[in-house]
Amino acid sequence: MQFRSSFLFALGSVSMLAACSSIDNSGTAVAYGGNPLTYNSSLDTAMHGAEPTTAFGKDLKAEYIAYAEREADEWYDFFDADFFARKAAKVAQNETILPEDPANWRFDDQEIAQKRAVREELIGLLDGGAREAMPDVAATAQARYDCWIEESEEGWQTDLITQCWKEYEDAIDTLKAPKVAAAPAETQPVAAAPRLFTIFFDFDKSTITPVAKRVLDAAADQWAASPGTVSVVGHADASGPNSYNQKLSERRADAAASALTTRGIKADGVKKDAVGEGDLLIPTPDGVREPRNRRVTISIDN
Asked: Which of 41, 60, 215, 219 fits a 20 to 30 Å CA distance from 113?
């Protein structure tokens, strides 16, 4: 950790953030909340309070503390730093803290459905014996999943989103290895596969990101299990001229459709459309960059 912020420094940093950033963290994670003015005391409670009695609890507490410190010391995000410090303290009290429910974060219904499918797979592994069999890997999986959720909601640190997702996948692959005892299949939570998918793009780009590739894989698997007509609609945010954004949304739709056909979906079964900035997911004034509006929506109809 580079430094420990005082109460006054935290207050000043939060004020500067409010002045120079369009990201509003005040509604983040409504189930717990985060207070930038109590970060230091929350972190102190987590670090010097009770110690978990299980190996998984000790590893998970350490993961949350490290993430809280990084949020504060590198990005001055004291809202989410306080949030994860509080989670570490709850783990220290031997509370069973589950991976974040995406419904508690600011995602649309499609994103919630997709992320809940990931969450339920993780919970199935944790409840199936992963906490006891591989506590360090299980703690890493939960912490990186939570990182992916928090960073995806903010939507601007694309490299970190990709890093959290990759490290989550690596941990999950290890937990799925045969040496991890799995719960009987009949007791595993079964997530209903969504028929709607959304992928997101970097600013002024139509390149498929690593996270988007995973969503496209899921869409192709869904189509293979129950083939139907695939509709692909490209979108753009309001940061450029209407005519340019229309062309950009077309390129994004073309990229998504091409990626789907390489995954086995028949080209003549894919309908493409592009609406530019005409259907913003997050309403913004003209000229505003908004990561969640830079997207392609994919629907599979029976």
From this structure: 60
Residue pLDDT, tens place only, 211-237: 889 889 888 888 888 888 899 999 999
User: What CA–CA distance (Å, rounded) separates 137 from 129?
Assistant: 12
**Distance of alpha carbon 191 from its chain centroid, rounded?**
17
The pLDDT tens digits for 101-145 are 998 888 888 889 889 889 999 998 998 889 999 999 999 999 999
Instruction: Give the residue ranges of the chain where pLDDT is below 70.
Output: 1-34, 178-195, 302
Residue 3 DSSP one-character state: -
Q: How far apart are the first and last CA of the chain?
A: 53
Tokens representing residue 219 in the block = 């869409």
Q: Answer whether residue 59 is part of any domain.
A: yes
The CATH number for 212's domain is 3.30.1330.60
Same domain, yes or no, for 212 and 183? no
Per DSSP, helices labelled H in 49-197 are 55-75, 78-92, 109-125, 131-133, 135-154, 158-175
Q: Are residues 201 and 295 in the same domain?
A: yes
Which residue range is the domain that position 86 belongs to? Answer: 7-92
Q: What is the dihedral sign for C-alpha 171, 263, 121, 145?
A: positive
Tokens matching residue 75: 């990005």
Work out whether strand 295-301 and strand 196-200 pair parallel, antiparallel, or are unpaired: antiparallel
178 in the same domain as 119 = yes
Q: Does residue 276 come out as left (phi exceeding 0), alpha (psi in the -120 to 50 range) or beta?
A: left
How many domains is the chain partitioned into structurally? 3
How many CB atoms are located within 10 Å of the residue 155 CB? Answer: 17
